[in-house]
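Exercise (ungraded).
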Amino acid sequence: MTDATAGAAHPAPKPQSLLAPDARTRKRNAAEARFRIYGMVAVGLAVIALVFLLTSIVRNGAGAFFQTFISLEVTLDEAKLDKSGNRDPEEMAKVSTFGYAPLIKDAIQAKIAELGIEIEGLAKPEDLISKEAAAQMRNFVLANPDVVGTTRTFEFLADGRIDGYYKDRVTMESASRDKNVSPEQLQLADALKDAGTLETRFNWNFITWPDASENRPEASGLGVAILGSFYMMIIVLVLALPIGVAASIYLEEFAPKNRITDVIEVNISNLAAVPSIVFGILGLAIFINFAGLPQSAPIVGGLVLTLMTLPTIIIATRASLKAVPPSIREAALGVGASKMQTVFHHVLPLAAPGILTGTIIGLAQALGETAPLLLIGMVAFVREYPAAPPEGFFDPASALPVQVYNWTTRADPAFVERASGAIIVLLIFLLAMNAIAIFLRRRFERRW
Amino acid sequence: MQEQHIVKAFDRDLEAIQAMLMKMGGLVESAIVDGAQSLETRDVELADQVRQNDRQIDALEEQLVEETTRVIALRAPTASDLRTVMTVIKISSNLERVGDYAKNMAKRTTVLAEVNVIDGAAAQIRRMARDVQLMLKDALDAYIQRDEKLAMQVILRDEDVDQLYNALFRELLTFMMEDPRNITPCMHFHFIAKNVERMGDHVTSIAEQVIYLVTGEYPDESRPKQDKTSFISDAG
Amino acid sequence: MNDMRIMNRATGMQDTKMSAKGVDVYYGDNHAIKNVTVDIEDKTVTAFIGPSGCGKSTFLRCLNRMNDTIPVARVEGEITLDGENIYDAKVDPVQLRAKVGMVFQKPNPFPKSIYDNIAYGPRIHGLARNKSELDDIVEKSLRRGAIWDEVKDRLDAPGTGLSGGQQQRLCIARAIATEPEVLLMDEPCSALDPIATSQVEELIDELRQNFSVVIVTHSMQQAARVSQKTAFFHLGDLVEFGETGQIFTNPHDPRTESYITGRIG
């Protein structure tokens, strides 16, 4: 009970009107308004930085999706390609790309004559075409031997410098100093463009073709890298998800609460903070040196990334399991379900959205890891697509982030554009995976 | 005494109804004493007073019923609290009857003032009334102190009241047989004596309630009944 | 005593269903239940009352071995169901819990359909051979749980979409779906409004025709309303156990009297 006599010492303060805020309230409101402004400024700065980053990447990389092509009619001279006349691919294969190159040279000269282009000092017009073109044509002919003897229109990639000219990397002035291209060739390109023979259009090959050599940035693509990353994601999903979830369920539901379990839990949490390059060293030592798995293969990359993703999945799963209210477990036990039945019939379905989200986030992180993959040799230059799984897991492949690293180390400035383009592709994948995670979480969220 | 309830208002309610009961008891005790005195001294004014005071006793009984109903509805008493409330109701009913008998006693004073004096009858009645009043006082004390032994003694003392009544009954018969002019006053005295004897029975009932309150059980039903006047055998 | 009594309250006329002898429960070093001996009669509602922390819920959870899920809990003494010691090493707690059902303080229906809520227990214990038998069990349980009329048209709706009182009746129906012999209820009406409470109390009164019910409650009035036998626990001891009417009008132990009249917490 209150002491009724206490009030006698101090006279009661005059009651304050509600309509007039007192000094303390005003100060507090001002402080809170200031804090709100700080928050908005912080958010604003973050947004500006993000916008800056994205525009820079998109500006640099958007060009990679567009490529310059030249259409030419090539006479597939039987005399040069199929001397025996049998249309036998095995026999025709003996003719290397050196045999095809003159055909292209003839074709472009024919075009120049047809269009009546005259440029003073023009030398080696065939340099406008990418060196890749001959190989491209050869593959086509070997796949379709019947075209020998006909005249077909091919769309050839333009040379990297020509492509660069249309992307403002190469100017008339720099061309005069460049040993790979001359200003006259650029003029020829312009003339061809005016005639409609040359155009810059969207290039799907960027995504589907394998990597090309240093000299041919125009032909380099992400095909192998995307496949390699995809295979690794499959391996990570197939391995990390069941192992991680099972380990987590065991630790959370079944493990006795003693020191050993505590030690295990602490170590798993610490694993999540280990630098990724350490996992690379681990992978090198165990999977490649000790187990003898092929270098640069998705299987090794997948295994290393699995090790890296396991802690994330375990931690996310444990959090989801903990979030299931104990009343559900008690209800299940009360009805006579065993521990296993309780976990699998009741707890796991309720924890599924959280587990799923954690897995997808873990996968997204793994998709972007570069350091460990470098150590296991995925920095190698790979031209062939890996085969279909499961054999394909053991073929050499590349990975998206590694490909980015690779391209940035090359001298040709065209590769800067390619690298930025690859970053855009990577970002799109990451955004897609996060969007799936959000969608799945919304869809499966239940109120209980 | 037991500790207090956690909710102090409950204690206050119980104390209030018990205080009202004690007040009623005090009024009834006075009524008995005054009634008997007015009879002996033929004091018509005192008799009137007693009749007025009975209205107060009745009003208290009504108020007690209201208050105890309220306590039951609001406090949901159990165990000893419930027995406390139940016994308050029953005792107030007993007290109200005793008060009515005292009033009747006083009423007859007015009538008896106009007829013969019967020697000693009034004095006997006063003695009986005094015994009953002491019994009532002790019964109420036993209630307050929750003393079942005292209550038991009160029950046993009713025997004395009954015996006094028997004696007075025989004496009055003698007076009536002596002189027919004594019949009217003797009849009145007889009724008065019967009322006093009934008062004793009610006080005994109050004592039984006390025992129920304290122990949770009523005392054995063989209450001493010494009133032999219902049997023809020894009379006359 | 008066020999002419008309009303005789017959107590102890039912068989003993569960019996506890000398039961001690320890939580680590804390001696939570001290040497409790009590008999639970069949087809009777027994109430456990007492102040907070007196051990009534702990003792209740011993009756279906729910304390097994708490690692630091240790139970000593004998508790029998139909004469068999439930703490015997050969007894599977899972099987026991099909015979001794439990309803909890906060209604906790599974986040599944109403049908699946009821059907889960019978399914895992193999009580139905086919779908139509299962349907029968579900309907019977919902009828017994006094909730059939309200949900019969929406058995596929989620169990969590019902009101509080309905959810608790659903949980009771779920508990009786496995045809238990004893039903344990841990403060089942704490989370319910007065009307829902009354409905559950009425349900308990109907249930006692078929099961024995043990209810822990912190409302003495509720214990007085629904039970036939009442046990008063205080600081881990069983202070008094007797017929409910006698406990509430004339308890033998002064501690019981103090608690019931509201003189001690």
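Further reading is listed at the end of the chapter. For now, observe: Chain C is about 35% helix and 25% strand. Residues 17 and 82 of chain C are 5 Å apart (CA to CA).
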